[in-house]
Amino acid sequence: IVAGLDSADSGTTSVEGTQRGSSLGQVGYMQQKDLLLPWRTVLDNAILGLELNSVPKRQARTRALELTETFGLHGFENQYPYALSGGMKQRAAFLRTMLMDQEVVLLDEPFGALDALTRVQMQEWLLELWDSLRKTIILITHDVDEAILLSDRVYVLTARPGRVKMVLDIGLPRPRNYELVTTYAFMELKSMLLANLHEESSLQSWG
User: Fold this and answer.
1) 159-163 contact pairs (CB < 8 A, 24+)
2) φ/ψ of residue 111, rounded to 5
3) How far is residue 174's CA from residue 190's CA, in Å, rounded to a whole number?
4) Torsion angle defined by CA atoms of residues 147, 150, 151 and 157, in that order, rounded to the nearest 10 degrees
5) How many whole angstroms from its chain centre is CA 167?
6) Tens-place pLDDT, residues 148-190
7) CA 107, CA 77: separation in Å to the nearest integer?
8) Which residues 6+ apart lie within 8 Å of 91 measured at CB?
């Protein structure tokens, strides 16, 4: 619904108080898999969305090259996906998403397929990137630590039909890094979320 791929049965969506019709094409959307095209280089994968929006290729390449260093891809612009690590593929996919310059970006478990170490590195990278880009990011995740570390507000959903069961404001200061996960304030928030999730899973078991 947020990405405009489906219609709501009821209710409306709005951005900064402005109600919208279809959000299709107005919201950046990155899925769990990088979905890079194997026959295109990193640079040509990054500009795919711009090309589909009729941006001239030379102009699109210039815009992408301005951000390759920020996205940790400098020097790899002409490499093909097979030569990249999992983390670099995700950065390339995220660059493709962010080049569309949408105010709202939806990330659907973007680090779920990565190993634990790479996942931590990508979380810290995203924190740094958000500080510079300041986009509104909606992140879907099953990782409680990730939800707390990256977010300003966490929504806990029930099982189908999905409903908002809990809204938790994350009052942790920014800028943040992964050392935060060992602090008392972080563990207190984690305990609250886990208790709520455990209650939900117990209800599903009995149901």
Assistant:
1) 159/200, 159/204
2) -110, 10
3) 18
4) -20
5) 19
6) 999 999 999 888 778 888 999 999 998 888 899 999 999 999 9
7) 23
8) 71, 72, 73, 122, 125
